[in-house]
Every structure is written in structure tokens, then in C-alpha cells.
Amino acid sequence: MLNFDNRFIRELPGDAEPRNQPRQVFGACWSAVTPTPVAAPTLLAHSREVAADLDLDAQAMASPALLEALSGNRLLPGMVGYASCYGGHQFGQWAGQLGDGRAILLGEAVNRRGQRFELQLKGAGPTPYARRADGRAVLRSSVREFLCSEAMHHLGVPTTRALSLVGSGESVIRDMFYDGHPIAEPGAIVCRVAPSFTRFGHFELLAARGEHDLLQRLVDFTIARDFPELTVTPERKLRAWFHEVCARTARLMAHWLRVGFVHGVMNTDNMSILGLTIDYGPYGWIDNFDPGWTPNTTDASSRRYCFARQAEIARWNLERLADALTPLLPKAERSAAVAELAAAIEHYDEVYSAAFCSAFAAKLGLRSWTPADGELLGELFELMHLAEIDMTAFFRQLAQLDIGQADSGVLRDAFYREDLRRQFAPDLARWLARYSARLRHDGQPAAGRIAAMNRANPRFVLRNYLAQQAIERAEQGDTQAIHELLEVLRRPFDEQPGRAAFSARRPDWARHKAGCSTLSCSS
Ligand code: AMP
Ligand code: MG
After folding, report:
1. Which letter does DSSP use for residue 35 in this model?
2. Are the beta carbons of 456 and 17 closer than 8 angstroms?
3. 374 lies in the same domain as 326
4. Domain limits at 111?
5. How far is the CA of 267 from the centre of ligand 1 (A)?
6. Is 373 marked active-site?
7. Mind listing the pLDDT tens digit for each residue in 168-191?
8. Per residue in 55-73, pLDDT tens?
9. Both 343 and 402 in a single domain?
10. Within a domain: residue 303?
11. Gap from CA of 201 to ligand 2 centroid (Å)
12. How many CB atoms lie under 10 A from the CB of residue 278?
């Protein structure tokens, strides 16, 4: 059904200790581990696009053998269970060894076109990296990961994917608000799929431990397997690779900003070496435009991971990766090589600015970008913030503006508060007049501009309250809302008549409700 070619465990050293007990793992990139079986697995949902990537047809997706594999109850031929070893900086502090505590890799599936995908079960039981935790995941966080992975993909944002959402038929105990009220929640397992799940933290841990030979091996392996297009001389490889990681990370940050996504836990163990969005935990989507908003309750006081700081934090994370790679630089020309890593981080700034400007030019319907457009956008952001304007609704509706009239009526639905709408009406009118003048100067015919703006401004994103509603129904055994959301989010830029409910701005009841406005890390 699936063909496996497990390079990671074949080419990199594994842990000699076979027992599945919490420990520090030295001199190895992975530990063999078997998923812990679950009582009564059911396939709650799957992504047909990911299935197609893996050459899994409807019959395969319906087969009991595949369900057994996706629940961790049995491995398919060619699959091997293992967890990888990494560390990370969490909230700015070095945290030492972390590792796949509840994610178990099943190997690397190679499809008929030769594309390679690591498969990973999240919530399939503890691993040697689980510390004292249970290795499981609750349904609510699994629904969020499953839906958001696919929503992001369809929005054009680089991301790990999700093949399946499996209910385990078992319960998991979680104290959601960390306030001494643990309850039993339904458990679930997501099968995540990505060309590579390698994180910045994989390199950081080896560097922190002084395991430089293994660090070099992991770098060589990563470049060979995950960056085959990098063809430079061996002595330049490391720097060229870091340069590429910087560029990809920069583009990812611009993507997050353009769609209004807040990751919520940008620790270096949650940074993908491929520049993918990875580890969907207490993430959220911007409703009313608030640059300082973070969905993560653990981050509520410092707001390290709020919407507007994401590009800055990603840069900080790249600096930590550069620190980890520094011991591998050639000794003879160390200072020149260090300067090159620094230059790559400057390259990050350039790529980020360019990607940000081109994304927002597209969102505003402009064919080019000038410094004056940056000012125009800055004023819009300020206005959207003060007037509590919904980001997704505003940009989507902006295409409907008649630039001869510059009447703000089409933007009425983007406001959360009528009093603020009235208060800021003159400011909005002034902004729209300037914007209309800018569009007239740009000179693009309206039909073309509107079509282009509708390709840049999604009508549908995974609003926090929509995910929460689907979760609450799923917890009652009804997965219909998950399927509906998945279907709508497959075509986020299409108008999809009859589905207005899925594009509605956050209702009042959801403003301060857990799961809709804020989330804890408990998952
Ligand atoms: P995260 O905050 O999701 O990035 O996780 C940080 C670390 O905690 C990673 O090493 C995870 O594998 C581990 N972890 C989180 N939840 C669990 C759990 N329920 N069981 C085992 N390990 C976990
Ligand atoms: Mg993580």
C-alpha cells in the first residue's frame, strides 16, 4: 500500500537502549519506539489531498489495515517506529533535551512520483522523550491540528500536512486551565505528513552537548535528503544551506502575516528546517486586527509570540541556529565564515521585507510597491487596530470598493463595534480616498484588480470559534462540522455561495470564550 525507504534511521545513528523509558539520549538522533495500541480506533476524518500525495485511494483509506496503522495499533510492512531527539529554546531560554515526546515517526513513504514523506503519529503513546507526560493527545487539539494543517496548505502557506484524524476510543486526563481541575477528555491521534520533521532544535541539542561529529553528520544528511537542489562545493555547503533556511523562514513569516495566523509557541523546537508551519498548539487567527494579540495564555503577560512579533522572533530563532552551526565552520577562515552566517540573517531581513511587501501589494490590489505604500499600509494597520476591524473580512471586502466613490459601506460588516465604526468613519473615509487615488494611479482595470485581490484575500480562514464549534460537536460524537469545515477550507479564495456562515466574523459570545479567543498549551 505504501513504499518505505527509511533514510533517517538508516543513515543516522540510533539510541542503543531499547527500553521505552524517559531518559537523556546521547550520541544518537533517534530512539526506536513502538506506538502504544488504543482500544477502539475510528477514522474521524482524512485529507483526500494528502491521501492522493501518498497514492492512497478511497479503498486504501477505508481498509482496516490502514486504520490499524494510523491509530498505532499495528505497523504496515516497511514501517518502523521511532522518535527523534532534539532540544530547543523555549520562551527565550535554553531548555535542553525535548524530543518527540508523543510523536512517533513511522518511516519515509516514497510515492510513485518519487516524492518522499515522513509519516508521524501525534498522540500515539509515550517515547523516551516523554519525560513525565502520557504521550497522548486530546480530540480538541487534534481537530485543531488536522484542520489547520489543511487550511494553511490551501491558503498557500508552507506547512506540515495531516493525513488522518483518528479517535482513539480512550480518554485522556487533562487540566486544561492548569487550575487543578483535571477532566477526562476523548483522545485522538493525527497522522502528520511532511518531507521532513527536522527542527532547529535537532541541531541545537547536538551543539549544546558538544557532539560535533554527529552535528556534522546531521547537517550533511539534512542537506542531502531535504535540500538536494543545493549544489555548491562541500566547504560552502553549510553556509549556502543556512542562507536557504533563512530565506524560507522569512517567506513563511510573510505568509503568516498575510493570512492573519499567530503560531503562539515559536520555540526553536517548533521551527521547521524546511520553513514549514509545524506544531499546531495554541495557535490562533486574527479576528479584530490587534498586532499584540497572542492566543497562548502561557504567553499572555510577555506577548513574546504575538502576531506582530513573529518575524522578529523567527530571526532570533535563526540566530540560535547559527550559534549551533558555528562550531562546524572551517577553523582557518572562522571569522569570515561567521560573518557569512550573519550576512544570511541580513538576507532574512531582505527576503522578509520583499515577501511582506509583495504579499500586501497583492492584498491591496497594487501591481507594484513603493515606500509611500508602506505608509499607506501602516496607517491602515493603525486604523484597523483602533477601530477593531476584522482583518479577513476587511481585506476580502476591500475589493468591492468602488474607487470612483470610495464609499465605506462595503466595509460595514468588518467592524465589531458600531460605536467604533462611527467614531472612526472620518478616518476610514480619508484612508479610502487616498487608497482609491493610489489605485487610479496604478491604473489596473477594475475587473482584473478585483479578481487578483480575491486570489490574495481569503474569504474563509479557520476562525478560532469555527474550530471550537466543530470540536464541541465532535466531542459529542458528531464529526459533520469537521467535514464541512474541511470542505469549505479547501477553497478559501472562492466565494462559495451559501456558505456565508463560515466567513462570518467572530460572534460576541466567542470573544472571551476559551478555545475561541485564548488557548492553553494543554493538549
Ligand atoms: P510543544 O509545547 O508541543 O512544542 O512540546 C514541547 C515538548 O513536550 C516536546 O518535546 C513534546 O514532545 C513534549 N510533549 C508535549 N505534550 C506531551 C505529552 N502529552 N506527552 C509526551 N510529551 C509531550
Ligand atoms: Mg513542539
Report:
1. P
2. no
3. no
4. 7-200
5. 12
6. no
7. 999 999 998 889 999 999 999 999
8. 999 999 999 999 999 999 9
9. no
10. yes
11. 10
12. 23
